[in-house]
Amino acid sequence: MPRVLVDAVAVPADRGALIRYVDGLVAALDRAGADIAVACQRAEAERYRRLAPSAQVIPGPVSITNRAARLAWEQSGLPLLARQAGADVIHAPYYSIPLSAGLPTVVTVHDAMWFTEPDQLSPHASFFRSATRTAVRHARRVIVPSKATRDELIRVLSADPTRIDVAYHGVDLAQFHPPTGEEIRRSAMRCGLHDQPYVAFLGALDPRKNVPNLIRGFATAVKRLDEPPALVLGGGVHEDDVDAACREVEATVRVIRPGYLRAPDLPGFLGGALVVAFPSRGEGFGLPVLEAMACGAPVLTTHRSSLPEVGGDAVAYTEPDADSIATALGELLASPQRRHQLREAGLARAREFTWEACAEAHLSSYQRAIE
């Protein structure tokens, strides 16, 4: 079995979907008996030791907490660290790679949205486009979380399909589970709901997630209800267009923005919702959809990019425009029976996505890189 250095130094500290991918993968690789070392920020070292007790955890230098220093260290310090650790292969789980590592490198490219939705993304898009082009060209193997992402890389970057491996993400069923009544109550209190029913969104409030159209569609869907639910937007940064959409809707429409939610509150938040709405314009995988299904939530999402690969027939679909969202969401709110069907189907489908299967796919990719 090859010795793998996983470069977790670049994992953002916001505890979003990326860190759940790296955490789930590292823990599953360790359980599978893989020979791994994990490079990480010093502040994260103890956490990785708990996640992967058999792994060698190597804290990086103090100086690499900012992006410029980290990228410079990635090109020189990381290859040296890999050789000192006796690694056979380096896995970079976040787009960028060392160009002269001296040993095979595997990179995870999470999506191609930097190319296909350039106006819907952050001001850092040019960096990620450059890093993705370089990684796809120079890495020995490229791991992607969905067939849709593989196909997009082939289409927009002429990537070599024989060097791309698909590894679906998993879901931690101990963390994401149908909540108890107490978990629902605690989450509702933190969001200030006071027993009011609600529709939930969880994710970054960036343009790609389509939150302004969700707000407009929600307002239309509930405007004739005697006791309308609230819309709770969990996570992310408050973008200007989200604020503008909130100002457009009537004062009687309640939109709550609690900011980032603690991990222990997520099962209650997702599983306690009437519907979890995730009308994204496109995803590399769509981990929030999978996690919501695992919590027993009826899910409404779009039939875009990888989302049908995750949701299958276990979720409801809408187009991303506000009118379509209003129609689809209104139908779900009016049908407890349909929500119950989606809840049961989602729980069953979520069990098909495991971190053990994800780790197995990664181990196969590492071996191909060496061969």
UniProtKB/TrEMBL annotation:
Gene3D superfamilies on file: Glycogen Phosphorylase B (3.40.50.2000)
Domain Glycosyl transferase family: 195-346
A Gene Ontology BP annotation from the UniProt entry: lipopolysaccharide biosynthetic process
One Gene Ontology molecular-function label: glycosyltransferase activity
PANTHER family: GLYCOSYLTRANSFERASE WBBK-RELATED
Protein name, entry field: Glycosyltransferase involved in cell wall biosynthesis
Domain Glycosyltransferase subfamily 4-like N-terminal: 20-174
UniProt keyword annotations, A-Z: Glycosyltransferase, Transferase
Keyword Chaperone recorded: no
